[in-house]
Fold this sequence. Notes:
16% strand, Topoisomerase I, Chain A, domain 4, two-stranded antiparallel ribbon, 6 strands, Gyrase A, domain 2
Amino acid sequence: MIDKIIKEIKPRLESALAHFEEGLGALRTGRANPSLVEGVSVDCYGTKTPLKQIANVHAPDARSIVVQPWDKNNLKAIEKAISESELGLTCQNDGETIRVNLPDLTEERRKELTKVLNQKIEGAKISIRNAREEAWEKIQEAEKNKEISEDEMYRGKDDLQKAVDEYNKKVDEKGKQKKAEIMQV
Length: 185
């Protein structure tokens, strides 16, 4: 019974970790990375669409990103969306592609990015904590309904906490790696 509850929580823990990793891709480090702009929402054909669904995005070198839309009519919308995003990037539109040049990160900007990173870490841990609380309530409910004994309930709590600790550790490790990338000059 407890193993079943813990197995049910695993996909939520995996999802929280995957969402966190996806969010890390949007944090700018010293190198150009297509994932930095791929998630930018572009007003395209009357709907908000992620950039990666309407254009080819690649980083030809460490300081620039090139966006090549599949439909040239979207160039202005893409340029506007990137410029207005919270990324603080400027674009150059040559009529065929959009080139995004990444300026060097200042120490002040690195500290701001570290704060954003810490918020993302906390958000991931909150998601993990919420999943744990839900599973713990199910375990307590099972004990209340006499489906498991009190000893099994506490053993289940320990097993649940081990799973949660494992995912929190993964979040901390990935956060530490990203912080090192951000602070690297």
